[in-house]
């Protein structure tokens, strides 16, 4: 079945087009009044068909119908010769690299014969399909809506990478030295590797560094710097994460004259970035509670297990080619969803349909993956598994939370995963930790941290963070000097 986001269902792969199916498709085109993303109508087999052939082959395929005039309302072209058009189309397909071999049918329609060609996508390892005489950079096209657009050089480069293993993460950073790696993280990594493969270290540390792609001639690899660096942004300032908290459902919404409720540039190594993102999401999402006679169940907006897997995937599988090193990973929270966007589309044999299935894993940055499988986050856990389970974990954690599956937007240049915010049930209380703490303090003259913890059933850390936020906002004040064991708090309204 060929179908596009804006297109029509156009039959089964390899199946012969019949008159009834063709009539159904043309009827839909007449209703819409335009070509579709996966259906193109042409009066004849002119040279412009080469661009459409390239565009269909580089995406999910498509259907070409010859002998109709879009300008005249998708009506038959007078004296159209389907046999001659078929021969011309076969010749045009040979002018594409790699050569295309579509399913071609001559089908009756309104007392004439139309030529119908089903174009299948080429293999990922053979993309981009391009107009041979124009060359790969000027002859590669993508389907955008009902138009064929020439690919940008960056998009062509990403497709060419599918033909071999990218090595951008193994580049050695000439401006950095071994001293720019965290000594503890490096020591722990080398200790683990030495126990696994002692022969690697038999010829000394320098040889081991080179074999493990940690460093060469005293300069760390990009992968090592990202996984274990003291401050990778000293050398690559945009290989960071931006966090934005928006007041509405789009970036253009404005509340009280502010475009962003919170904006932050998160820096550090990948293990530090993962924890920083989790901290931001935790602090800015609300956690509801479903309470019965005995138990209280926390119900967060977003399962943090899923968020963690998503940000690890974004940092691990993003594009680290020189052209993309000026583009950050973006984490954006809206009132109805959380979006995580990374530069570069899916790599290798992984498709949107195969995400989370059969443990399939195709790694763009293989040495970075190796490091992150052996490097720990500040809380002691391993950063990544890289066994094709990341998206499956996301799906399972959302299912366990009775939340809808994550949505995905994917192109050659970016990948976005979208979590819908959990809807509030009528039987639950729903407020942020800060709201809980403020409500408790409003209900009494003063309160200590211990008393607030007991009243809210929140953790001591969550209570203290909420109290500090309320103090910064001028809603609460402390009654004793800082760090006093007798510290109590009160709202400013009770003074």
UniProtKB/TrEMBL annotation:
<dbReference type="InterPro" id="IPR036390">
    <property type="entry name" value="WH_DNA-bd_sf"/>
</dbReference>
<dbReference type="InterPro" id="IPR038461">
    <property type="entry name" value="Schlafen_AlbA_2_dom_sf"/>
</dbReference>
<dbReference type="InterPro" id="IPR005471">
    <property type="entry name" value="Tscrpt_reg_IclR_N"/>
</dbReference>
<dbReference type="Pfam" id="PF09339">
    <property type="entry name" value="HTH_IclR"/>
</dbReference>
<dbReference type="InterPro" id="IPR036388">
    <property type="entry name" value="WH-like_DNA-bd_sf"/>
</dbReference>
<dbReference type="GO" id="GO:0003677">
    <property type="term" value="F:DNA binding"/>
</dbReference>
<feature type="domain" description="HTH iclR-type">
    <location>
        <begin position="437"/>
        <end position="477"/>
    </location>
</feature>
<protein>
    <submittedName>
        <fullName>Divergent AAA domain protein</fullName>
    </submittedName>
</protein>
<dbReference type="Pfam" id="PF04326">
    <property type="entry name" value="SLFN_AlbA_2"/>
</dbReference>
<dbReference type="InterPro" id="IPR007421">
    <property type="entry name" value="Schlafen_AlbA_2_dom"/>
</dbReference>
<feature type="domain" description="Schlafen AlbA-2">
    <location>
        <begin position="37"/>
        <end position="151"/>
    </location>
</feature>
<dbReference type="GO" id="GO:0006355">
    <property type="term" value="P:regulation of DNA-templated transcription"/>
</dbReference>
<dbReference type="InterPro" id="IPR038475">
    <property type="entry name" value="RecG_C_sf"/>
</dbReference>
<dbReference type="Pfam" id="PF13749">
    <property type="entry name" value="HATPase_c_4"/>
</dbReference>
